[in-house]
Amino acid sequence: MTVQKQELTPQAGRESLNAPDLEVMNFIQAKSEAGQLVTSEEIFEDLVQKGTLKSEGEGGRTKLETLLKEMIKNREELKRISGNKKDSHYYSARGMTEAYAGILIQKGEDPLLLMVETIRDNSRRYPRPVRLDLFKEPPCSLSPAEIFHCLKRMAEQEQYQDIAQTTTSIGTLFLFSKLHLEVDYASMLAEWLDVGQAMNP
Fold it and tell me: For a designed S-S bond to 55, which of 27, 33, 48, 168 qualifies (C-beta 3.0 to 4.6 A apart)?
């Protein structure tokens, strides 16, 4: 799945924010543009460092949680996303798409689920197999060791037995789901994506 960050649009209405709101939005915006989600703890630490909130006691954290709830209601660009672990993360829709944020959440929770869902989604939606090296690139950014470990777990666990591999004539490994693609068709598509397109621009 090719996921791109959302193009930035003019920050209409940003001038109406008060100082703490503006600092929160600027912090989240900058992180989103850098391809990162943020937690309320990271936002809190940034505000403390700037002197906007005091670090002593729980009063500052409570104030921030209240502020974030209000901003979620009133600021369309501010988004909250939670994964299976129920931890909330925030991002700006001006700098990041929902799909991109979802990949970051999956990566943080379990790279295996990220790989499996990406493979199944590509096989079902497009349909097409996925080049293994895709998972080394942003936003996945998995290391070779992480990828190898995930492939090993896929091979060993019954719920992932629909994930299959095919290798092209020039040695590129692709992955696909047998739930959505037949083996011969997946192999043909992989060969076209890896070799055929280059020979027939």
Answer: 48
> In 51-89, which positions are buried (b, 16+ CB within 10 angstroms) versus exposed (e)?
ebbeeeeeebeebbeebbeebeeebebbbebebeeeeeb
Strand partners, 81: 89
Q: Which CATH architecture has domain 14-103?
A: Orthogonal Bundle (1.10)
Domain spanning 110-199, CATH architecture: Orthogonal Bundle (1.10)
Q: Please list, residue by residue across 105-135, b when 16 or more beta carbons sit within 10 angstroms of its beta carbon and e when fewer do.
A: bbbeeebbbbbbebbbbbbeeebbbbbbebb
Domain boundary assignment for the chain: 14-103, 110-199
DSSP state of 134: G
Per-residue pLDDT tens listing for the chain (201 residues): 444 444 434 444 444 445 678 899 999 999 999 999 999 999 999 988 888 877 766 677 888 888 999 999 999 999 999 877 767 899 999 999 998 898 888 888 889 989 999 999 999 999 999 999 999 998 899 999 999 999 999 999 999 999 999 999 999 999 999 999 999 999 999 999 999 876 665
Residue type, 187: S
* pTM, to two decimals: 0.67
Same fold, 14-103 and 110-199: yes
Instruction: Please give the sequence-ordered ranges of beta strands (E in DSSP) within 11-67, or none if there are none.
Output: none
What's the CA gap between 168 and 192, in Å, rounded? Answer: 9
